[in-house]
Specification:
about 130 residues; mainly beta; seven-stranded mixed beta sheet; four-stranded antiparallel beta sheet; globular
Amino acid sequence: QAQLVESGGGLVQAGGSLRLSCAASGRTYYAMGWFRQAPGKEREFVATISWGVGHTYYADSVKGRFTISRDNGANTMYLQMHTLKAEDTAIYFCAAGARSPISISYYKAESRYAYWGQGTQVTVAS
């Protein structure tokens, strides 16, 4: 049974850093990604990474500040977040997909993911 478990959320001051983790189990995934949902807003794409080669794709709003990575041996994906802003406050969700597309940008769409974690809260105090 596919399972994704996020951890690492919390409260941080603006300008600070935080690292999120997503432990994956149950099956093989082609790609994994991070999405976030702020209060009163729709869930939005943050970043995605292919499990094998490690190709990445980021939302413009986080480029240069966030880094997505994975540890294949530990079956864990990470999101290192730097220079956090108040607008980064959201519930962050881990997601996984099993299809192998031509480009990793395929996985910027929420509908492309088959499996989701429960989410972890990130709050950035200004």
